[in-house]
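Two quick folds needed for the group meeting slides. Do the first one here.
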Amino acid sequence: MFGNYLIGLREGLEASLVVCILIAYLVKTGRRDALKPIWIGIGVAVAVALAFGAGLEFGSQELTFEAQELLGGSLSIVAVILVTWMVFWMRRTARHLKSELHGRLDAALQMGTGALVATAFLAVGREGLETALFVWASVRASSDGTYAPLAGVLLGLLTAVLLGWLFYRGALRINLAKFFTWTGGMLVVVAAGVLAYGVHDLQEARFLGGLADKAFDISATIPPDSWYGTLLKGVFNFQPDPTVLQVTVWALYLVPTLALFLAPIGSGPSARVKKQKATDETAEAGANAGTSA
């Protein structure tokens, strides 16, 4: 349940912050008349996200078992790709998200009502569709026959809405860059579990082989129906008897992705090369200027 709560909190808070920034900017600039189009765009984005999630859930029920597993595994992998891109993007842009949204909103104000609706829809809709897909994949991966996974997601979303309101009212201030770094790191761990489960789905659909090749089996030590087995599955999508392919894909994704994500921004060979190149170009320009003189 914690893993699903984290997804709802993280994804919901991003959307809440976007909404708060848009509304606060219009209020401060005296453009309250533009609030209605913004709320319309937000409402349409939420409705599309909910319809997308409902379509995934109810549409997949009409398929055969193998088709369900193939669809579930494929969408789980797509969800992991999207959420990985999202956490890296937010880590880079968290510091200047406000100025970026203000720029988009200024341009939309000049273009009229339709542009305002589109701006709000696109800003919130992208988060909504990503959330719906990843939540569906995660809930499917950690489902134990109860409503606990979905309850975790809803609780996370409610917490995100509350935090967003507190931000708007000025009652809460936190370092968003650090917040998104820590939650992003935990979300990468959750995504690794979703990816491994997606691979298992593809194996059950007979799209990938190796279903009978178990890496290990500790079901006797950690029974899936025990409280600690349920806890590990809910937090990390842990499986006591994964296949060799599952473990391989999990490790190949988690280790490098987490290392890159937690590395300081601007570090690494590429950053040093760019800095050195800029220094060399500046020195060369100065030398040329001196020669010309």
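Then this one, please, same format:
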Amino acid sequence: MFSPEGPTLRELAVQALSSVEHGYDLLAPKFDHTPFRTPDSVLDAVASALKESGPYDDGLDLCCGTGAGADVLATVCRTSVTGVDFSAGMLDVARGRTTAPGPRVSWVRADVRALPFTAAFDLVVSFGAFGHFLPRELPGLFAQVHGALRPGGRFAFPVLAPPRPSSPAFWMLLGFDAAMRVRNAVWRPPFVMYYRAFRLGEVRRALEDAGFSVALRALPEFGARGDGSPRVRMVEALRMPDGDGDGDGEGDGDGEVAGVTPPGA
């Protein structure tokens, strides 16, 4: 699962026994060499899909980490790209990235549950971040994103179809979540990172309650499963005026895990 440039088992253990913020500070220098980073294939597919609805002026990468998602925004935004994360270590790595000529790029350290922006963006993206939020935090998080978007702005993120119960990946993710629950029951501070905590149907309802109109878009680069359902879809949540609009799209898809990239995906 890890390249030779990635973290050692001891480094991962130290990270897992830290808070989420400090754990990512420790992991930051080697994060891009772990399977926790969203694969380039997913980033490229989202960028391709967003080009069809763009261009946009100002974009925000929510929980930007080391900045891979900012590269997606740079392909579809004309004016500015902002990355926000609460890990100083991850942001230090992001600031060291080589950027091509294009929109201006800035990095902001902040808790995304209290975003320091109001109606500042036309597009918000997020990659692999939702496993770090408990279900009860979703409504507040989506309200923050809604407030950071201008009317008509878009919130987009990929969702992967969950592995079948007959597959080794299913049991690996189930075991990971179980281990994290045990860890958080006996150790403080908690480290919130769950791969199967959120269902797409729940995420969609929370988005609609926050004032978004929600649609689901298949990303054809990843093909379909045996039952014909997409392997990967993109959620597109449009900020509507207050009291306007209902969700639409391809159905709830309650089985999908929202915004989480499983190891090795």
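Slide caption for protein two: The chain has eight helices and eight strands.
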